[in-house]
Design brief:
The complex is a heterotrimer of chains A (158), B (286) and C (767). With 158 residues, chain A is an alpha+beta fold. Helices cover 30% and strands 17% of the residues of chain A. Chain A has five helices and five strands; from the N terminus they run E-E-H-E-E-E-H-H-H-H. In chain A, a hairpin with a 2-residue loop joins strand 1 and strand 2. With 286 residues, chain B is an alpha+beta fold. Chain B has a five-stranded antiparallel sheet with strand order 4-5-10-6-7. Classes of the chains: A alpha+beta (158), B alpha+beta (286), C alpha+beta (767). Chains in contact: A-B, A-C, B-C. At the A-C interface, helix 2, helix 3, helix 4 and helix 5 of A face helix 1 and helix 16 of C.
C-alpha cells in the first residue's frame, strides 16, 4: 500500500513518518509512537476517550486520519505535564477524587484543557457543556466538574 | 488500496475529481470515518480538501458566504453570525460535542444529507443557496439540494464549495430548537428552525423548516401560509401546531416513533416561533 | 475516627492515571504478537450446517483459523452452569455465538479473513420474549435438558424455578383491607465500561504453561473455569491483572477473551492479542437481566403491610451465566426493606435468543427495587399516605425479620437514611416554564453485601515488612476503578500506624496472590478490607513480639510510629526494616496472613436462613425532576443520596460511588435500553445506545450515614451497588408526582412519558 510522508509535532517534538492513508491519528499515537495514554473506546467519536489537542483544538483522534495531521501540532495527555510538574488540572483531578477507573481521564483532561484555554473562567454549566463529548461511566461527572472549577477559580491546594 | 491526495487549491481538487470519480472526499472526517469504521482500507481513494484555504472563509455583510470547510465550532462562536443569524449558530452548537464541532464542517453536514442534520433547517429558512463546483460552477437552492436520506442532487465530480444567503433584515428573527433523547451528543428526534418577518405587529412572513420528520429537511409551507399575516397578539398558535403536525411525514426509528415525532414537533415549533419573534430586533444592532 | 480510616486519602492510583501511565489490557503488546478476530453467528438461532474456513486460511498473513471442528476436546464453560461452547458446533443460540477464530499478523488481515469464511445455516424460530420461551410449543434453545428444571410449560427453556416462603401469605391477604397488584418491567442495559474487553496471552512450550493478561473481577474463579475448559492444571495457567481496569460493573465477572486467548497462544505458538470493538462487545457480552415483576401487596387501613407476593420472570438470554442467581435474588428482595410477616415468591429463569444476561451493579436488586419502590409509591399515593411516612411505618429496624427470615441485629439504616435524605432535600422548587411541571420522588432500598446464601465467601490477604521498612499488602482483590486498593492501604495504615505512602500493593496475579473472591456483591470493603485488617493485625503482633524480644521491653512500652518501632521513655527505637531483617535471620519473618470467612446459610426450598447475608447496606434517595408536558422530556434537577455505609473508610470514595451510581441509575431510568429485534441488537454503538453525558446529570448531593456497627473493617459496609439502586424508582416516583402518570416500564423515554401524559389527558376529558 502506498505510503505518504507525514511531518508533525507531538508534545513539542518534531516527528516524521511514512504512513498509509487509512491510518488514524489514534493509531499513529498509540501503535507507532506508543503514546498509550490516549484511549479508544468507541472508534466513532461518541465517547471522547481519544481526545487530543490538534493545533490547540480538541479533536477525537479516532476520527482524524494521521495524514490529516500533517503540519499540525498535537498534544496528548503525556504532553500535559510530567510527574514532577503536574498540570493544575492533573493536580485537581487527584485532589478532588475525579479519577476512578481512569480510562476516560486522559480524554477528560484534554477536553478540560481546551475548555480552560478558551474560557478561563467557565461557569459550572459551561464546564458541563465543555465535557459533553466525553463519557464517563464511573464518576457521574460531579468530581470531574469540581476539579475543573477548582482550577478555574484558582482554588488548588498546594 | 487507499490512495490519498490533498490538493492545496480548489482548481486542483476539481481537476482531480474529474479523473477519479470513485474517490471519496474527506474534510473533517467526522461522518466518513464513522461510516467506514474498520473498513477504511477498503476505500478506493481519498481526496482531503482540508488544505484548500479558499473554502475556509466566512464573508459577512449584506450577502453572507460561508466556505464549506468552516467548522461547526467556528460558526457557533462567530460573533457576527451570533448576532445576525443566531439560529444557525444554535444549530452548529448542537452538533455532537466540542471534538466533533472542531472537525466537522458545514459542507460535510450538508452533503451527507442526513434528515437530522443540524445546519440544514436554519440554512433552509434563511433561503440559502449552495455552490457546487465541478466542471462548471452551479448555484442550487438548499431547498432543492436534498433528495432523500444520504442523497443530494450532486454529481460525482462536484464539490460543495460554499453556502450563501442574505443577511436577515432588521425586522427578522430566527430560532432553532432540537429535541433529542439526551441533552448532548444526540442526533435529533425532531428539530425545527423558524425565521420570521415582523411588520407593524404582524407576522408579515415566516419560513419553517423541520429536521428528522421526513426523508429530507422539510419546509412547512401550509403552516407558513396559515400564520402569515396574522397579528402577533392574535397568533393562532394551536391551529399552527395542528397544521404543522398534519403536514409532516415522520417515520418510526430508533430515536422515536412517527406518532411521537408528530406530537412533539408541534410544541417544538411553537416555542421556536415565539423565540424567533422574540429575537426580532434583539439581534440586529450593528 | 483516629488514624487513616475515615480520611479523604488520595487514591493510590490517581497520579499514574492522570499521567496516562497505567497499561490497560488493550495497551499490552509483545514481540511477535498475533492479532485475533472472531467470526460470530450470522443468525441468533440457527442450525450451523457448515463453517468453511479454507479460503481464509490461504490469505497471506493469516497464521491460524480454527472452527469447532478443530478443537473438539474443549469443554463447555459458564459461571454456574457450564452451558456455553467456546466455538459452537451444531447450533447458534444468539448473535454472539462464535464460529471461528482467526489469528493473523495484523488486525486488518484478521478482519479480511473473517469475510472469507463461508457459513451455511438453517434459521430456527428466534425467541426474544421469555413469555414465548415458556410456552409448551416454543422450540428448545438448549436441547440437553440436563441443567434444566422440571417445568410444566417448557422443559427446554426454563432453567430454574426458585421459591420463597415466609409465614402464610394467604392468611396475610385475608387480614388485609386493601390489595394492590401491579406488573413492572425492566430492560436490557449495557454496562458501557469505557475499557472494552481485551487481553493478551503467551504460551511457554518449555514449561507447558500459559500466561494471560486480561481484566477479571475474580482472577481465581476465571482461572479455574479456563483451566477446566482447556483441560490443564490450574498451575499451568497464570492470570495477571493488567496495570489498571477500565470499569467493570459486573461485566468482567464473565469470561470474554479469557479462553480463546490462551487457546490460540498454544495453537499458534506465538503471543496473541484480542481487542473487541464496541459493537462486538455490546452484542456478545452480558447484559443487565430484563425482568417482569408481578407484585401483590396486602395492606391494613393503618398502613401495615400484611402480605407480599412476587412472581418474577427473568430473561437469561442464550446462556445461564449468573442469571439464575440474579433472578432468584431479585425475587428474594422484591419486598424491599420492609418488615412483612407473610411473603411468598416464585421466580423463573428463562432462556431466550437474546444476548445472555449476567451480573450488573445490583445483581437483581436494582431491578427488584424499581418494582418494589414503585409498588410502595403507588400504594402510598392511592391510600393518601405521605410516601416517606408510609415507608417509615413498615421499615426495617433492629429486630426486624427480612423476607429471607434473617433477624436484623445490627447496622439497620432504613429509618436513618430516610430521615437524613428527607431533611437534606427540603422542598421542591418552582417550574421554569408553564409547560413544565416539577415533582419529587423518593426511594429507599436494602442490599445484602457478599454472596450470602451459604456460598463459601471469603478473602485472603497478606501483609509483610520488606527489608527497606515498607509494608507490602498482597491481595487479589480487583480494583476496577472503585478504589479497593486505596481502602486496603488505609486500613493497613490505620492498623500499623504507618503513613499510606509507606505501603505498597502487590500486583494482582494468581501466581503470587491468594483468592480474594470477586469484586462484586459490594463485598470487597467488607471481605478484603477485613482480610487486610486481620493480616495487618497479625503482622503488628509479630512486630511487637519481635520488638519485645529485640528491645527487651514489654508490649505496653512499644508502639509503631511512621515506620519505626518506638520504645517509650527511652531514645531507643528501631526501624521496621531493621527489625524485619533480624526477624528473617531468626527464621520468623515479619509476614502475616488474614482470612475473613464468615458463615451464611439458606434453605433453598423456602428461601429462609438465619444469616443470609453478613451485612445490609441501606440507601435512600430524594430526586427532583422537571417534566416537559409537551415533549415528555424529563430533567433530573437534584439527587440527594443518604447511603448507610456503616463507616466511610474514605468519604471521597463513598461519594464517588454514590455519584457514579446515581448517574448510572439515571441512565437506566431515562434513556438506556439495548433493543433487540428478533434477537438482533439494533443499537450496538454509543450514538444509539445512550448513556448520560455531563449535561444530562445534576450534582449528586451525598450525605453519608454512618451507623458504625457493621461487620466490615472499623464498622464499614459496602457501597458499590446500593449506590445506584434507589435512583431509578425515585425518578419514576418523581415523574408521577410531577405529572400524575403511572409508568411501569423502564426506561421513561420522552416518548413514553408523553404518551402517558396524552393518555391521562384523554381520560380526564372523558370523565
Amino acid at each position: 500500500m502506498a505510503k505518504y510522508p507525514l511531518d508533525l509535532v507531538v508534545n513539542g517534538s518534531k516527528y516524521h513518518f511514512e504512513v498509509e492513508a487509512d491510518l488514524r491519528l489514534v493509531d499513529l499515537l498509540r501503535e507507532q509512537m506508543k503514546l498509550l495514554g490516549t484511549k479508544e473506546s468507541c472508534g466513532k467519536g461518541e465517547c471522547g476517550a481519544c481526545t487530543v489537542l490538534m493545533d490547540g483544538k480538541s479533536v477525537a483522534s479516532c476520527l482524524v486520519l494521521a495524514i490529516q495531521a500533517n503540519g499540525s501540532e498535537i498534544v496528548t495527555v503525556e504532553g500535559l505535564g510530567g510527574e514532577e510538574a503536574l498540570h493544575p488540572l492533573q493536580q485537581a483531578f487527584i485532589q478532588h477524587g475525579a479519577v476512578q477507573c481512569g480510562f476516560c481521564t486522559p480524554g477528560m483532561l484534554m477536553s478540560a484543557k481546551y475548555l480552560l484555554d478558551n474560557n478561563p473562567r467557565p461557569t459550572r454549566e459551561e464546564i458541563r457543556a465543555g465535557l459533553a463529548g466525553n463519557l464517563c461511566r464511573c464518576t457521574g461527572y460531579v468530581k470531574i466538574i469540581d476539579a475543573i472549577q477548582a482550577v478555574a477559580e484558582g482554588r488548588l491546594e498546594q | 488500496m487507499t490512495t490519498y491526495f490533498a490538493p492545496s487549491t480548489l482548481s486542483k481538487a476539481v481537476a482531480y475529481m474529474q479523473e477519479n470519480q470513485t474517490t471519496k472526499i474527506i474534510a473533517g472526517g467526522t461522518d466518513l470515518l464513522v461510516a467506514h469504521y474498520q473498513e477504511l482500507d477498503r476505500l478506493p481513494g481519498l481526496m482531503d480538501i482540508g488544505n484548500i484555504a479558499e473554502l475556509k472563509t466566512i464573508t459577512t455583510g449584506q450577502e453572507v458566504e460561508i466556505g464549506a470547510l468552516v467548522t461547526h465550532e467556528e460558526i457557533a462562536d462567530h460573533p457576527w453570525l451570533q448576532q445576525h443569524v443566531p439560529a444557525l449558530c444554535q444549530g452548529a452548537a448542537q452538533v455532537g460535542g466540542p471534538q466533533i464541532r472542531n472537525r466537522g464542517t458545514l459542507g460535510g453536514n450538508l452533503v451527507h444529507a442526513s434528515p437530522a442534520a443540524d445546519l440544514a433547517p436554519p440554512l433552509m429558512v434563511l433561503g440559502a443557496v449552495v455552490e457546487l463546483t465541478g466542471s462548471s460552477q452551479v448555484q442550487v437552492p438548499l431547498e432543492e439540494f436534498f433528495k432523500g436520506p444520504g442523497k443530494t442532487v450532486m454529481e460525482p465530480n462536484q464539490i460543495l464549495t460554499k453556502v450563501k444567503f442574505s443577511k436577515p433584515a432588521a425586522n427578522q428573527g430566527g430560532a432553532y430548537l432540537k429535541l433529542g433523547k439526551r441533552k448532548a451528543m444526540a442526533i435529533a428526534t425532531a428539530s425545527v428552525a423558524v425565521i420570521v418577518t415582523v411588520d407593524n405587529n404582524r407576522l408579515a412572513d415566516l419560513r419553517i423548516c423541520l429536521g428528522s420528520v421526513a426523508p429530507v429537511p422539510l419546509r412547512a409551507h401550509k403552516t407558513e401560509d396559515l400564520l402569515r399575516g396574522q397579528r402577533l397578539d392574535l397568533l393562532e398558535l394551536a391551529a399552527g401546531e395542528r397544521q404543522l403536525q398534519a403536514e409532516i411525514s415522520p417515520i418510526d426509528d430508533i430515536r422515536g416513533s412517527a406518532e411521537y415525532r408528530r406530537q412533539a414537533a408541534g410544541p417544538l415549533f411553537r416555542r421556536a416561533l415565539l423565540q424567533a419573534i422574540n429575537n426580532v430586533g434583539v439581534t440586529q444592532h450593528g | 475516627m483516629k488514624g487513616y480510616v475515615g480520611k479523604r486519602i488520595q487514591k493510590v492510583d490517581a497520579l499514574d492515571k492522570v499521567l496516562g501511565k497505567p497499561l490497560y489490557s488493550v495497551d499490552l503488546d509483545m514481540e511477535g504478537m498475533l492479532y485475533l478476530k472472531v467470526l460470530y453467528s450470522p443468525h441468533p438461532h440457527a442450525l450451523i450446517k457448515k463453517v468453511d474456513a479454507s479460503k481464509a486460511r490461504e490469505l497471506p498473513g493469516v497464521v491460524k483459523v480454527i472452527t469447532a471442528a478443530d478443537v473438539p476436546w474443549l469443554k463447555t464453560y459458564g459461571l454456574i452452569f457450564k452451558d456455553q461452547e467456546v466455538l459452537v458446533k451444531e447450533k447458534s443460540r444468539y448473535l454472539g455465538d462464535r464460529l471461528a477464530v482467526v489469528a493473523a499478523e495484523d488486525e486488518k488481515t484478521a478482519r479480511q479473513a473473517l469475510k472469507l469464511i463461508e457459513v451455511d445455516y438453517e434459521p430456527l424460530e428466534v425467541i426474544s420474549d421469555p413469555i414465548r420461551a415458556m410456552e409448551p410449543d416454543a422450540p428448545r434453545i438448549h436441547e440437553s435438558g440436563q441443567v434444566l428444571c422440571d417445568h410444566p410449560y417448557n422443559k427446554g427453556n426454563v432453567l430454574a424455578i426458585d421459591h420463597l416462603v415466609k409465614g402464610d401469605v394467604e392468611a396475610g391477604f385475608a387480614e388485609a383491607d386493601h390489595i394492590f397488584e401491579n406488573e413492572f418491567r425492566t430492560q436490557h442495559v449495557d454496562h458501557v465500561a469505557l475499557e472494552l474487553e481485551a487481553g493478551m496471552a503467551f504460551y511457554d512450550s518449555d514449561t507447558d504453561c500459559y500466561t494471560l493478561w486480561a481484566p477479571c473481577q475474580w482472577t481465581h474463579d476465571i482461572q479455574t473455569d479456563v483451566a477446566r475448559v482447556l483441560g490443564i492444571r490450574m498451575d499451568q495457567l497464570r492470570i495477571v491483572q493488567p496495570g489498571a481496569i477500565g470499569g467493570a460493573f459486573g461485566r468482567r465477572e464473565d469470561i470474554s477473551v479469557h479462553i480463546i486467548l490462551p487457546l490460540m497462544a498454544k495453537l499458534t505458538g506465538r503471543p496473541v492479542k484480542w481487542a473487541m470493538t464496541r459493537g462486538e462487545s455490546m452484542i456478545m457480552m452480558t447484559k443487565r437481566t430484563p425482568f417482569i415483576f408481578r407484585l401483590k401487596t396486602g395492606i391494613k387501613k393503618d398502613g401495615t403491610i400484611t402480605a407480599w407476593q412476587s412472581e418474577v420472570i427473568g430473561d437469561s438470554g442464550a446462556y445461564a451465566s449468573t442469571a439464575g442467581s440474579i433472578i432468584h435474588q431479585a425475587m428474594y428482595v422484591s419486598s424491599g426493606p420492609y418488615d412483612i410477616p407473610n411473603v411468598k415468591g416464585v421466580s423463573y429463569t428463562v432462556y431466550t435468543n437474546n444476548t445472555y444476561s449476567g451480573a450488573m451493579r445490583g445483581f437483581g436488586a436494582t431491578e427488584a427495587a424499581f418494582a418494589y419502590e414503585r409498588q410502595m409509591d403507588c400504594i402510598a399515593r392511592d391510600m393518601g399516605w405521605d410516601p416517606a411516612e408510609f415507608r417509615l411505618k413498615n421499615a426495617f429496624r433492629i429486630g426486624s425479620c427480612t423476607s429471607n427470615g434473617q433477624i436484623l441485629t445490627t447496622s439497620v439504616g432504613t429509618v436513618d437514611t430516610i430521615l437524613t435524605a428527607r431533611e437534606h432535600f427540603g422542598g421542591k422548587g418552582i417550574a421554569t416554564a408553564p409547560h413544565k411541571k416539577r415533582g419529587v420522588g423518593m426511594a429507599t432500598i436494602m442490599f445484602g453485601c457478599g454472596y450470602g446464601e451459604g456460598f463459601p465467601d471469603h478473602s485472603i490477604a497478606g501483609a509483610k515488612v520488606t527489608d527497606d521498612g515498607r509494608i507490602l499488602i498482597s491481595s487479589a482483590a480487583a480494583d476496577v476503578g472503585q478504589g479497593v486498593k486505596t481502602i486496603m492501604v488505609q486500613i493497613a495504615a490505620n492498623v500499623l500506624n504507618i503513613p499510606p505512602e509507606s505501603i505498597d500493593l502487590a500486583d494482582s496475579d494468581t501466581a503470587t496472590t491468594r483468592n480474594a473472591g470477586s469484586t462484586s456483591a459490594t463485598r470487597q470493603t467488607i471481605f478484603s478490607g477485613n482480610a487486610v485488617k486481620l493480616a495487618a493485625e497479625n503482622l503488628l503482633g509479630k512486630i511487637f513480639h519481635r520488638g519485645n524480644v529485640e528491645l527487651g521491653r514489654a508490649y505496653p512500652e512499644l508502639s509503631t510510629i511512621d515506620g519505626d518501632l518506638i520504645l517509650h521513655g527511652t531514645t531507643r527505637q528501631m526501624s521496621l526494616g531493621e527489625l524485619a531483617k533480624i526477624a528473617r535471620d531468626k527464621g520468623e519473618p515479619l509476614e502475616a496472613e488474614g482470612c475473613y470467612f464468615p458463615r451464611t446459610d439458606i434453605d433453598y426450598g423456602s428461601g429462609q436462613g438465619d444469616v443470609v447475608y453478613v451485612a445490609y447496606t441501606y440507601n435512600t434517595q430524594y430526586v427532583e425532576v422537571e417534566v416537559d408536558t409537551e415533549t415528555g422530556e424529563v430533567d433530573v434537577l437534584r439527587i440527594v443520596a443518604a447511603p448507610d455505609v456503616g463507616t466511610a473508610i474514605n468519604p471521597t470514595g463513598v461519594e464517588g460511588q454514590s455519584e457514579g451510581g446515581s448517574v448510572m441509575g439515571l441512565g437506566m431510568a431515562l434513556m438506556e435500553e439495548q433493543i433487540f429485534n428478533k434477537g438482533i441488537t439494533v443499537n450496538p454503538d454509543l450514538s444509539t445506545y445512550l448513556i448520560p453525558t455531563s449535561l444530562d446529570v445534576p450534582d449528586v448531593e451525598t450525605i453519608i450515614v454512618e451507623s458504625g456497627d457493621a461487620c466490615g473493617p472499623f464498622g464499614a459496609k459496602g457501597i458499590g451497588e446500593p449506590a445506584m439502586i434507589p435512583t431509578a424508582p425515585a425518578i419514576f416516583n418523581a415523574i408521577e408526582d410531577a405529572v400524575g402518570i403511572r409508568l411501569y416500564d423502564m426506561p421513561a423515554t420522552p416518548e413514553k412519558v408523553l404518551a402517558a401524559i396524552k393518555a391521562k389527558d384523554r381520560e380526564v376529558e372523558h370523565e
